[in-house]
Amino acid sequence: MNSTTLFKLCRTGYLTLVILLSAWFINKGLNGEYSVAFTSLWIIPLLFPLKGILTGNPYTYAWASFIICLYMLHGLTLLYVTYEYLWFALFEVALLGALLVGFPFYARIRGRELGLGLKKRSK
Fold first, then answer.
1. Are the beta carbons of 3 and 110 closer than 8 angstroms?
2. What is the mean pLDDT of each run of 10 residues along the chain (123 residues)?
3. 103 touches 65 (CB < 8 A)
4. What is this structure's pTM?
5. How many CA atoms lie less than 13 Å away from 19 in the CB half-sphere?
6. What's phi and psi for 30, nearest 5 deg?
7. Could you count the other beta carbons within 10 Å of the beta carbon of residue 59?
8. Is 114 helix (H, G, I), strand (E, B) or coil?
């Protein structure tokens, strides 16, 4: 798989995740289950890597995986504790799992194309 295809897949998956989780948390806020501050605490970290994800910056793809881990915990917890939102939780966990594999893979491939990497220590 080349970096262009992987970039499009990862970007589409990330935007789907942003829309899905924003709708989820805003809906919970409007129903009175979550406060505005709590809803903001869930949505804002998801938006931090947005610019780098859209532009294809491999460094952003590398560190965005750490932020996605927080939402993976949310999805796995929701999957474990409720049957009412089982399909939502399954979709969330599957999407996050794909992004947790795709993001570092894209960062590695694109970083190699750009000649980025760790500098070798001279002896």
1. yes
2. 91 96 91 88 94 94 93 94 93 96 93 78 71
3. yes
4. 0.87
5. 6
6. -70, -30
7. 13
8. helix
